[in-house]
């Protein structure tokens, strides 16, 4: 099937390369010429494991093209809109790019087609899109559908090719049929396909992210309590997670969730609820606990070091989570800013996100390895649980540091090993020791 993908951000590129891998003829568009040139050369514009191999495969086979004009999608049978939906000052998602892209696809379409919302949008967006599209074109049938993505950065290729489920919201049977053809290779392998009305699909996507954020905040709130009660939040989460109804995933206490999805989607969902006349206060509490989780780490650093002026602090991991170079809403950078405001000198290392972090926080010194970051520091904070930190040589770390203080913002280290290395240790929601 001939498929269009508007915008080659994280979701767009992964959608394009995986659909081409499934055998479709895909054209991705963007206004960023530099990014298009990179993609045409078979190079990924950002770090996403496994994506570059599929990109090369698509480009070399001729099944995947990148163009700078939506006009190239005129004969696409389905076009996925993957533009950004950044937050407005009010917290609502800005849907300007969604509207513009959809209207342009409609303007250029040469025959009956489906415009699919892939970007996360508030319930009701498709109705607005449909209205804008029908004002633009009434001579051909242009349907609107919702097909939210559930991709995690760092696992986006696997999440696309082996998803837990596929969700399609539409109002017409021919639209469902067309999207069934898009996903046939996956459905044939047993992936469940949920077909709902559009509002349900839009709302379900928000509900999933909000519930996952709720789990993380629940674990973080528990960590505050465990510290006061001398209990261990990791063991509590293990016990909870053994109950199949609860599940162990997303119960890891830490510095809080970040990234471009949870923080902004949660606020957008709360704003949507409020516009619909429901005060979803629980969502505000989830966000408040998340901020508290990062502040709690700052308090640990202060507890260990007292005054922060003239202290040198290392941040291990800067990306909002491992396996990505994305630093948007990264708790590590929020902490870096707080430490810098307190007068500390802050040095950071991340296997992938150093350059992005520097662009966001210019006063942050970036170095090329964990050991280099630790050199002559008074404290190290583990902010992102990259695998290479799990296997760190702790005695070597101790030898490099001025004060051997480690704040483990992701509970990565085994307390017994840390104790044996003679470090002062502040984990999250577990007993600290020196
Ligand atoms: C999230 C969802 O997991 C995807 O299903 C969804 O498609 C995507 O948002 C989106 O809406 O586009 P992502 O933002 O890539 O994906 O990251 P996650 O792996 O979900 O992690 C989110 C944050 O929660 C990270 O900062 C992570 O460190 C944090 N987290 C996660 C915890 O603090 N504790 C946990 O136990 C799990």
Bound molecules: uridine-5'-diphosphate-glucuronic acid
In DSSP terms (H or I, runs of 4 or more residues), the helix count works out at 17
* Mean pLDDT, all residues: 96
Q: Which strands sit side by side, in order, in the main sheet? A: 3-2-1-4-5-6
Structural class: alpha/beta
**What fraction of the residues are assigned to beta strands by DSSP?**
5-15%
Enumerate the spans where pLDDT stays under 50 for 5 or more consecutive residues. Answer: none
Shape: elongated
Largest beta-sheet characterization: 6 strands, parallel
Q: How many extended strands?
A: 14
Helix content: 40-55%
Distance between the amino and carboxyl termini:
62 Å
**Alpha carbon gyration radius:** 23 Å
Can you offer a commentary on this structure?
By secondary structure, the protein is α/β, with parallel strands linked by helices. The protein has 17 helices and 14 strands. It has a six-stranded parallel β-sheet, with helices on both faces. A six-stranded parallel β-sheet has the order 11-10-9-12-13-14. Strands 7-8 form a two-stranded parallel ribbon. The mean pLDDT is 96. Uridine-5'-diphosphate-glucuronic acid (UGA) binds next to α8 and α10. Uridine-5'-diphosphate-glucuronic acid binds next to α8 and α10.
Produce the secondary structure layout:
Layout: E1 2-6, H1 10-21, E2 25-29, H2 33-40, H3 51-61, E3 64-67, E4 78-81, H4 96-108, E5 113-117, H5 125-136, E6 142-146, H6 156-161, E7 166-169, H7 173-188, E8 193-196, H8 198-229, H9 233-241, H10 262-275, H11 281-305, E9 312-316, H12 331-341, E10 345-349, H13 354-360, E11 365-366, H14 370-374, E12 379-382, H15 387-390, H16 394-400, E13 405-408, H17 415-420, E14 424-426
Parallel strand pairs: 1-2, 1-4, 2-3, 4-5, 5-6, 7-8, 9-10, 9-12, 10-11, 12-13, 13-14
Helix pairs in contact: 1-3, 4-5, 8-10, 8-11, 10-11, 11-12
The structure holds uridine-5'-diphosphate-glucuronic acid.
Uridine-5'-diphosphate-glucuronic acid (UGA) is lined by residues 120, 149-153, 209, 212, 216, 250-252, 254, 257-259, 261-262, 265, 320-321.
């Amino acid at each position: 099937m001939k498929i269009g993908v508007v915008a080659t951000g994280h979701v767009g590129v992964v959608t394009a390369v995986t659909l081409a891998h499934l055998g479709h003829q895909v054209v991705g568009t963007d206004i960023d010429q530099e990014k298009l040139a990179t993609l045409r050369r078979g190079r990924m514009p950002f770090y996403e494991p496994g994506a570059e191999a599929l990109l090369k495969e698509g480009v070399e086979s001729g099944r995947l093209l990148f163009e700078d004009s939506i006009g190239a999608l005129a004969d696409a049978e389905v076009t996925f809109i993957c533009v950004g939906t950044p937050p407005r000052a009010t917290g609502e998602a800005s849907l300007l790019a969604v509207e513009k892209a959809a209207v342009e696809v409609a303007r250029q379409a040469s025959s009956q087609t489906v415009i699919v919302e892939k970007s996360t949008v508030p319930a009701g967006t498709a109705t607005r899109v449909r209205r804008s599209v029908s004002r633009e074109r009434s001579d051909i049938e242009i349907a609107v559908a919702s097909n939210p993505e559930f991709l995690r950065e760092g696992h986006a290729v696997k999440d696309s090719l082996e998803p837990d489920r596929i969700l399609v919201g539409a109002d017409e049977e021919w639209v469902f049929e067309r999207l069934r053809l898009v996903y046939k290779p996956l459905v044939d392998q047993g992936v469940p396909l949920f077909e709902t009305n559009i509002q349900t699909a839009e709302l379900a996507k928000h509900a999933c992210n909000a519930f996952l954020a709720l789990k993380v905040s629940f674990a973080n709130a528990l960590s505050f309590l465990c510290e006061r009660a001398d209990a261990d939040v990791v063991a509590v989460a293990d016990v909870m997670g053994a109950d199949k109804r609860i599940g162990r995933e997303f119960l890891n206490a830490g510095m809080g969730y970040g990234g471009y999805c949870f923080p902004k989607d949660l606020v957008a969902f709360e704003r949507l609820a409020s516009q619909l006349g429901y005060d979803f206060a629980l969502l505000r509490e989830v966000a408040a606990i998340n901020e508290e989780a990062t502040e709690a780490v700052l308090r640990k650093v202060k507890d260990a070091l007292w005054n922060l002026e003239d202290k040198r602090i290392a941040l291990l991991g800067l990306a909002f989570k491992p396996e990505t170079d994305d630093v948007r809403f990264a708790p590590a950078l929020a902490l870096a800013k707080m430490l810098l405001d307190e007068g500390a000198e802050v040095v950071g290392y991340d296997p992938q996100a150093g350059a992005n972090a520097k662009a966001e926080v210019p006063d942050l010194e970036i170095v090329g390895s964990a050991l280099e970051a630790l050199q002559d520091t008074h404290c190290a904070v583990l902010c992102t649980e990259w695998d290479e930190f799990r296997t760190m040589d702790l005695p070597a770390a101790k030898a490099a540091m001025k004060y051997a203080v480690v704040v483990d913002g992701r509970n990565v280290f085994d307390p017994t090993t840390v104790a044996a290395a003679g470090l002062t240790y502040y984990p999250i929601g577990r007993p600290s020791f020196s």
